Amino acid sequence: MIIGVPKEIKPDEYRVAITPSGVEQIRAHGHQVLVQRGAGEGSGLSDAEYRQQGAMIVASPREIYARADMILKVKEPLPQEYSLLRERQILFTYLHLAASRQLTLALKRRKVRAVAYETIRTDAGTHPLLTPMSEVAGRMSVQEGAKYLERPMEGRGILLGGVPGVHPGEVVIIGGGVVGTNAAKVAAGLGALVTILEVSDERMRYLADIMPANVVMIKSSPMTIRQYAARADLLIGAVLIVGARAPVLVSRDVVRAMRPGSVIVDVSIDQGGCVETSHPTTHSRPTFKKYGVLHYCVTNMPGAVGRTSTFALTNATLPYVLEIANKGLEGAAEDNVAIRRGINLYAGKLTCKAVADSFGMKCESW
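and the corresponding structure tokens:
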């Protein structure tokens, strides 16, 4: 199989879909890898490193899309890439289709076989290709929130850990999944007072066992969200319904009741956001103010730490890339239910129920 790796063109996206080590392993299985010139620069990976491991360096994305049987990406195709996709070509990337009807319809029209990293799910209920980037985004959410709480960034002027004799900052995290857990670890390590709002009793009991004493678990409800958001210096939205649009749990009125200069980091923005006042931002213009509250809503947070993210992503995706390349998508999906669940579109059919439900569209079998 010919696997094509184009350079990411989303604004301020520094990741690349494969490392040179990954190329070496793909080549060892007898497959060809095309890498667009400069694709790895944002992650500190040179064309020479890819070439040394057997990749063919290609000048233009058009040639990548024209020749490759499988397109390996990090982020969803942008409108200028839609026309490059070919019928029955395999597209393997983060898609987050529930956040974009335009992208869903474009991929449907192009009749590609689109496999989404985020909907690959094992029988154990884990999402192995979503987890590493959720870990990065969760840890970054506190790092970015702490920065924007500084007064020169228009925040409240709060040091999350405080100092002896001064009250530490209060961090409220909505959702105790992978993002929320990683955010809590970092916030707790800084010395903040951390509250995780979570709906699952089982998850709360688990978190209570592993978290330090400055992290408390509270049952999430509309009332507790209102109460704890009002006192938060940093509010982190870490809600996920895999494949579907994130539920809006923080209303406009809740934001209005927050203290001026407090910060919201809506990690759920990839899936539409869990805060009513959120809208997507970029690393070059990451924040905006609404009702005096600073909102950080960057849709590709891990892209800012491209090298860490690229290596973590390749570690997770490579076994699936090899399985699809070795067996073909259909053969891999028959043998591996996790890959089967990852197929969102197949030759013009929308095959992911959560995405179909988000748009009131028909879900079909692939």
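(Above: one complete record from the training split.) The first strand starts at residue 2 and ends at 5.
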